[in-house]
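Worked example 2:
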Amino acid sequence: MAQCRYGAVKPGANATQVSRTLLSDYREAIEQGTLAKLYAMPNKPWSAPNAVPMAQGLYRQDRDQAARKAGRGFSTTPRRYQPKPRNFF
């Protein structure tokens, strides 16, 4: 019988390569975080201080969703136990 194991991993601070799955799953978050940093640079042709809050908000939203997903592992069950109602006679 074959065994399957699942786990959540993240690249280390010194990583030079990232898996395609990680890039495809979190591409939008990576883009928004990068845009927020670029927009926040003063006196550059690409500066857009008015766009920083929007890009940061989208990045944080995706980041928090990824953290919740990693916290659950790959489980689809709810985090909290929901007691079932019992029938008493």
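The chain has a mean pLDDT of 81. Residues 20-39 form the longest helix (20 residues).
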